[in-house]
Design goal:
Elements lengths: L3 H13 L10 H16 L4 E5 L7 E6 L7 E7 L20 E4 L5 E4 L7 H16 L6 E7 L9 H7 L8 E4 L13 E6 L1 E10 L5 E2 H4 L6 H9 L23 H11 L3 H8 L12 H6 L3 E9 L9 E2 L2 E10 L5 H15 L5 E10 L2 E2 L5 H14 L5 E5 L4 H10 L3 E3 L15 E3 H15 L1
Parallel strand pairs: 3-6, 3-7, 7-17, 8-16
Antiparallel strand pairs: 1-2, 2-6, 4-5, 5-18, 8-15, 9-13, 9-14, 10-12, 11-13
Length: 451
């Protein structure tokens, strides 16, 4: 049994390093955090390397060979975190000081920025592997790849993995960088898929300049109206995407997938609604929440900008409007093809008196792991033993982790995605926390799997 106090002491040091990648003012803190990890690995017998770039924070690489004949596991994580300030509403005096607190449900939680995303989760595996090395019980060769720009959408990581492909050779990848759905803590969960996608910018222009609303109003087109008329056609009444051919590459969810997701949602609808702070779901056909968000594509307008919203009023007919649009696709859908279909939809639905510019950014594919593989079954069996359960629930994740697709495309290896956080861990939010009961189970799993 691993000593949870020793783990907590390490995590206290780890989260105290303000490795906020979204703010250049913390660049030195990010470098300090990378060096903290490098030192931790080095003093415990790992071969180490910093993979550096002028554009990003250092990537920490560490490798330990337990047995040249054993399998090699690559563990990915990130040490960068979201911003957090003392005036944001935290219940603690300092978001970067780890504190143990009792929550409303009487659970004990470790509270700090990074306690879950992703310092706390990746440290579970770092800590257990180091302890197993000390005990001479490590049964796999282990490599770590811990980056410092996950929160900013690392523009270099695909290139860095490609250039370091020989260094990163492995038999399997493990990622613990997620939160469990609102299921009982005694029911183990494995994430088996991720959606791919892309972000994009759409700009409309209806006249050379803004026009006087008294002189031209109603007689000339307004960019804002044309934008909302276009976007209002995106979905049909049944909440399916109203773009011809958009579902051509998409398989229909299987009965096994639907039954799995039913188990996840059953009796938890209120908790899901409460966690989101919404009054109702918008259902696509008869699909449940987890099927709709994990196994079906979506197009979400994430922002609109146009006209004047400053002090007072500007009586104008706005000539320009801009929308930011997020696409989520499900493997084997090709995100580039989906973006092409969307641009065709724009051309077919915009009047010829509206000019447009559509600019997508860095599309990436979705990912499905193989639940029938030997490695997946080994992880499942270990989880069943730790949780004393005869079933492991699979979760089809609505979000994306582009690095997982990268590992498949460049290294040719599958990824086991094992979320260790609770559904109410407040990842990215105020009072981000690690439930101590889940932490104990996470440490037990990692010790048993690697030992």
């Amino acid at each position: 049994m691993l000593n949870i106090t020793d783990y907590t002491n390490l995590l206290t040091e780890f989260v105290a390093l303000k490795s906020i990648s979204t703010d250049s003012a913390f660049r030195n803190d990010c470098h300090s955090c990378a060096n903290w990890l490098l030192n931790l690995f080095s003093k415990n017998g790992f071969e180490t390397k910093l993979i550096e770039s002028d554009k990003t924070n250092p990537v920490v690489y560490a490798s330990y060979v337990a047995d040249v004949n054993a399998k090699t596991i690559l563990i990915y994580g990130h040490y960068d975190v979201q911003p957090a300030g003392v005036h944001d509403g935290w219940s603690t005096d300092d978001p970067f000081k780890l504190e143990e607190k009792t929550f409303a449900d009487n659970s004990l939680r470790l509270v700090a920025r990074g306690s879950i995303d992703n310092k706390g989760q990746v440290l579970v595996h770092v800590f257990s592997v180091i302890e197993l090395i000390k005990q001479k019980k490590l049964k796999y060769n282990v490599k770590f790849l811990i980056e410092g720009n996950e929160e900013t959408g690392n523009v270099e990581i695909f290139k860095q993995v490609k250039e370091s492909a020989d260094l990163l050779k492995c038999d399997l990848v493990i990622v613990s960088d997620g939160e469990r759905p609102a299921v009982s803590n005694d029911l183990p969960v494995l994430e088996v898929s991720l959606r791919g996608g892309a972000n994009s910018t759409l700009k409309l222009k209806t006249s050379r300049t803004n026009l006087h609303s008294g002189i031209y109003g109603k007689a000339v087109p307004t960019a804002i109206e044309e934008m909302y008329l276009l976007l209002s056609k995106l979905y049909k009444d049944d909440q399916t995407i109203n773009i011809e051919g958009y579902y051509n590459e998409l398989p229909v969810p299987t009965e096994a997938q639907l039954q799995n997701n039913k188990l996840l949602e059953e009796g938890k609808q209120k908790e899901i609604l409460d966690a989101a702070g919404v009054k109702s779901f918008k259902k696509e056909s008869a699909y449940d929440f987890y099927t709709q968000t994990g196994l079906r594509p979506s197009i979400i307008v994430t922002g609109i900008k146009g006209g004047y919203i400053g002090e007072g009023y500007a009586n104008i007919v706005p000539c320009e409007c801009e929308a930011r649009i997020n696409f989520r696709v499900v493997a084997p859908q090709n995100p580039k093809k989906c973006l092409e279909l969307f641009e065709k939809f724009i051309k077919e639905n915009l009047p010829n008196y509206v000019d447009f510019e559509f600019r997508p950014n860095d599309p990436y594919r979705g990912y499905f792991s193989d639940p029938e593989s030997e490695d997946f079954k080994t992880v499942e069996q270990t989880l069943k033993e730790i949780f004393n359960s005869n079933k492991v629930v699979h979760r089809f994740v609505g979000g994306g982790i582009p690095i997982v697709t990268c590992f498949k495309e460049i290294l040719g290896k599958d990824t086991i995605m094992l979320p260790l956080a609770s559904h109410d861990c407040n990842m990215h939010g105020v009072d981000e926390n690690f439930d101590l009961e889940l932490l104990k189970q996470a440490l037990n799993f990692s010790e048993k799997f690697f030992g």
